[in-house]
Amino acid sequence: MNLKTGILLILFGVLLAAVVVGQRLQTRSVAFEAGAAERELRLVQKQNLVLRVERARKSDPTEMMRRVREAGIPLLPPEVKEAPPAQVEKPGKSR
């Protein structure tokens, strides 16, 4: 084996090692990104659960009525709402 072949083999070995190290670093980087994405997903799922519970609590009719009473808003039942006065024609009169 001459000097040129030895140098080429060493360069090939160094390049091969660099490629292997680069691939491992890239694999670790992807793994870290996946871990970060999973943590963010869990955080968003927790926030979603909290918001769903809060929405359910706020849309509960008894909770709504309690908040209306606390605010002092008068409510009338649907059948008691004021209707505009109807004009009733008297019998015997024509227009």
Q: Tell me the β content.
A: under 5%
Question: What is the N-to-C order of secondary-structure elements (H for helix, E for strand)?
Answer: HH
Discrete helix count: 2
Q: What general form does the structure show?
A: rod-shaped
Biggest sheet layout: none
Category from helices, strands and their pairing = mainly alpha
Low-pLDDT regions: none
Overall strand count: 0
Question: Main traits of this protein?
Answer:
mainly alpha; rod-shaped
Structure description:
By secondary structure, the chain is mainly α. It has helices at residues 3-58, 61-71.
Q: Which helices and strands, and how do they pair?
A:
Blueprint: H1 3-58, H2 61-71
Give me a quick take on this structure.
The protein is mostly helical and 95 residues long. It is 71% helix and 0% strand.
